[in-house]
Specification:
InterPro entries: LOR, LOR_sf, Tubby-like_C. This protein is mainly beta. 13% of the residues lie in helices and 48% in strands. The chain has a single domain, classed as Porin (Beta Barrel), CATH 2.40.160.200. A twelve-stranded antiparallel barrel has the order 1-2-3-4-5-6-7-8-9-10-11-12. It is globular and about 40 Å long.
Length: 164
């Protein structure tokens, strides 16, 4: 299933819908304001909380956490010793790890688990430069979590390039 994401829409304080490939509203992103740290809440189309994303306050490198039901599910951060290109990792609470690799700036990358692609993030399917798709390739994958991981990567990469 593909989900259409509007680039730069995940600003704190902004609220947006993410649509599926058929144009139906799939996820609602609520940017929370007046918080100590950046916070985004992702809900499904029925208003159920899917994930809450927070920027980690005390971290040597930019990192973000994804929570569900008050528990941290995933921590997303840049991998330390990645040669030649940016590689991020998403550390699951279970100790497992997802790798995020590809062209992160131009939104052409994959989210993988143990060498198997779970999702592809790509602008290739759009003529408009302000949109990209998250193509969840496995039916048993948690689309909300993969969307939240892509949002975290987007946020961290944008912050890195703002400071350059």
């Amino acid at each position: 299933m593909k989900y259409v994401v509007r680039e730069k829409m995940f600003a704190i304080g902004d609220d947006y819908w993410v649509e599926d490939e058929h144009g139906r509203r799939a996820f609602y992103v609520d940017g929370k304001v007046m918080r100590i740290r950046d916070t985004l809440e992702i809900q499904d189309a029925d208003g159920n909380e899917v994930a809450v994303i927070h920027q980690k306050l005390l971290s040597l490198r930019d990192a973000m956490t994804i929570e569900r039901d008050g528990r941290t599910l995933v921590t997303v951060k840049k991998k330390r010793l990645a040669l030649l290109r940016d590689v991020f990792r998403a550390e699951l609470a279970s100790g497992e790890e997802l790798e995020i690799r590809g062209d992160l700036i131009d939104k052409e990358y994959d989210i993988e688990y143990d060498g198997e692609r779970l999702a592809r993030i790509s602008r290739r399917w759009f003529s408009l430069r302000d949109s990209y798709a998250i193509d969840v390739e496995r039916e048993d994958a948690d689309a909300g979590m993969l969307l939240a991981i892509a949002v975290c990567v987007d946020h961290i990469v944008d912050k890195e390039h703002e400071s350059d």
